[in-house]
Amino acid sequence: MVKCQVVMDAMERLAPKKLAEDWDNPGLLVGSPSQEVNKVLVCLDVRDDVIDRAVEGGYDMIVSHHPLIFRSMKKIRTDLPDGRKLARLLKHDIAVFAAHTNLDIARGGVNDVLAERCGLGELQPFDTTGEEKLVKLAVYVPRDYADAVRDAIFSAGAGHIGNYSECSFNVDGKGTFKPLEGTHPFIGTEGTREAVDEVRIETIFPSMLQGKVVRELVKAHPYEEPAYDLYPLANKGAVYSLGRIGSVEAPVTLDVFAARVKEGLGADSIRVVRAGERLIKKAALCSGSGAEFIEKAAFMGCDVYITGDVRYHDAQRAVELGIHVVDAGHFPTEQPVVPVVAGYLRDELGKVRGGKDVEVAADDMLKDFFSFM
Ligand SMILES: [Zn+2]
User: Fold this and answer.
1) 254: pLDDT strictly greater than 90
2) Average of pLDDT values for 312-341?
3) 46-91 pLDDT, tens per residue?
4) Is the separation of the CB atoms in 172 and 197 below 8 Å?
5) What are the domain boundaries of the chain?
6) Which CATH architecture has domain 2-105+335-362?
7) What's the Rg (C-alpha) of the chain?
8) Where, by residue number, does a divalent metal cation bind (predicted)?
9) Among residues 110, 196, 266, 272, which one has the fewest Cβ atoms lying within 10 Å of its Cβ?
10) Rounded distance from Cα 16 to ligand 1 centre (Å)
11) How far apart are CA 103 and CA 26, in angstroms?
12) Which residues are annotated as a binding site?
């Protein structure tokens, strides 16, 4: 058993809330962070049949992609679908958490899973939504403790530059301090100025990790009051984006490509917008409902764009712009992330106290609302 907060923290590490679009409503939507969780059900939508399964299976938390509560509510009428669902969830003490556009954007989230299922490699950002802010840390450590502090801040995620990890710069120096009345100094005595051989360790980390890096630093540092500086940097951090651009190994026709996508997603049916005989090497994609980015994909030189919810005039525009479109459907482009999130939570909860016994299931029985005749 874990607290609901522990599951929320694990989800935050996968899909930080601050990645979400402004209009979105991710996070804990029903329940309390302090409630106990023994069974988690991961799904795309909190539908009536998902709640049925949660109630019958004794699940105490649902983690969904689409937020159950999206717009502000002025009434909870239990004779209408939203109120009915909320009443059942509250009655059975089932918490509901959503990771929506933050999970679309996150590395390893909906779009990365979709790209992998579509057989795309060499992934690049598509529609930029933000950029990681970087922070420089300088910490002053007595020489014998430098390794321990470096280990702690590196394992908290500091020190990554491109494909290099554990990057730091270290310079020896002399630190001075005078413990004042009431202190419990690790070195020295009250009222006397001390001089100690110290190392100034400098490293870098994404601002998102600041809390964790500082916490681990303070834990590993022997001093009562560790001295450290944090500098915001103007260096460019990693780019976050909705969607991805990727490439196929060798150019293929639209028919071959579309068949691969259909099979990769296990979709019953897909729709194809054919813009001439152009072969496919470079593709853009956006999970769910991304027809608004057809032009962008065309301007970025993509041969095909994969998304869902494409309307008639979107298709017309694509043909005019000369870019093929594969409309694989909203559900089939997003559902593949469900077992991935469930697997992630299983691994993460397995690392925390009480988390090994928590059962995590992926709702893989759900079907698309659309069927084809
Ligand atoms: Zn969606």
Assistant:
1) yes
2) 97
3) 999 999 999 999 999 999 999 999 988 899 999 999 999 999 999 9
4) yes
5) 2-105+335-362, 110-129+241-333, 133-232
6) 3-Layer(aba) Sandwich (3.40)
7) 25
8) 65-66, 104, 330, 334
9) 266
10) 18
11) 9
12) 65-66, 104, 330, 334
